[in-house]
């Protein structure tokens, strides 16, 4: 269900080419237009997040790079530190310190991920090798966990627009290999705060990659 992000808040927009991401050559536009009034048919949890002016991310799948959807933070776990982001149709992404650890509503969902080794290296702009564990739901509705060995290394500086504001970042590459797949993830990290404001992350064999960017308040 790769269209899960798109109904109700889908925004058709052209994307700008960006040599900073050699894998996809595309990133989200700097200013993401958004309806000032949330759609009445949206999921109630999305509407509650909208009314609370919750933080949001813009998302695009690599299979449909012409459509951008906005997800808002539905909840944050005080125990795990995971942010659950919800789209208008109820589809969800789970992010921990900006690193993808779960999806719901896509099919072949990423049910959970252990990414602590990768996260430490990414946030510190360090180089090294990390092991990540990713648990997927398969076609028989069973879960299977796969291990990936990842090489992580920082790159050059880049300016990312959050709304109309340029933010200075450094791009970090995560190159992962495992029996199930080989993929590259890219993270744009603010050196001072260690915040990931933009990323391109592999979610599962079916979903492929998701490109994410922090957006300013959708109600302003």
Brief synopsis:
The chain is mainly beta.
Model description:
With 220 residues, the protein is mainly beta. It contains 2 helices and 15 strands. Strands 1, 4, 5, 6, 7, 8, 9, 10, 11, 12, 13, 14 and 15 form a 13-stranded antiparallel beta sheet that branches. The radius of gyration is 16 Å and the shape is globular. 40% of the residues are buried.
List the helices and strands and how they pair.
Blueprint: E1 11-12, E2 16-17, E3 26-27, H1 44-51, E4 56-61, E5 64-76, E6 82-86, E7 92-96, E8 99-104, E9 110-114, H2 116-123, E10 128-137, E11 143-162, E12 165-177, E13 182-189, E14 196-204, E15 208-215
Antiparallel strand pairs: 1-5, 2-3, 4-5, 4-15, 5-6, 6-7, 7-8, 9-10, 10-11, 11-12, 12-13, 13-14, 14-15
Secondary-structure element string: EEEHEEEEEEHEEEEEE
Low-confidence stretches: 1-36
Counting DSSP H or I runs of 4 or more residues, the number of helices is 2
Multimer state:
single chain
The shape, in one word, is globular
Proportion of residues in β-strands: over 45%
Number of strands: 15
User: What structural class should be given to the helix and strand makeup?
Assistant: mainly beta
The largest sheet, given as strand count, sense and whether it forms a barrel, is:
13 strands, antiparallel
Taking all Cα atoms into account, the compactness measure Rg is 16 Å
Cα(first) to Cα(last) distance is 31 Å
Helix content: under 10%
Mean pLDDT: 81
């Amino acid at each position: 269900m790769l269209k899960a992000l798109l109904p109700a808040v889908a925004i058709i927009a052209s994307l700008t080419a960006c040599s900073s991401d050699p894998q996809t050559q595309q990133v989200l536009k700097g200013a993401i237009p958004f309806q000032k009034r949330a759609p009445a048919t949206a999921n109630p949890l999305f509407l509650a997040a909208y009314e609370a002016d919750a933080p949001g991310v813009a998302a695009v799948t690599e299979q449909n790079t012409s459509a951008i959807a906005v997800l808002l933070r539905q909840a944050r776990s005080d125990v795990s530190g995971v942010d659950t982001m919800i789209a208008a149709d109820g589809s969800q992404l789970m992010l921990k310190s900006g690193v993808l650890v779960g999806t719901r509503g896509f099919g072949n969902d990423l049910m959970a991920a252990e990414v602590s080794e990768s996260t430490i290296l990414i946030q510190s702009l360090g180089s090294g090798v990390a092991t990540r564990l990713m648990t997927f739901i398969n076609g028989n509705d069973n879960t299977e966990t796969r291990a990936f060995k990842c090489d992580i290394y920082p790159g050059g500086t880049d300016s990312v627009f959050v709304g109309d504001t340029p933010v200075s970042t450094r791009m970090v590459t995560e190159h992962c290999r495992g029996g199930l797949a080989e993929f590259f993830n890219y993270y744009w990290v603010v050196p001072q705060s260690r915040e990931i404001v933009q990323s391109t992350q592999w979610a599962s064999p079916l979903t492929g990659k998701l490109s994410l960017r922090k957006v300013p308040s959708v109600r302003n």
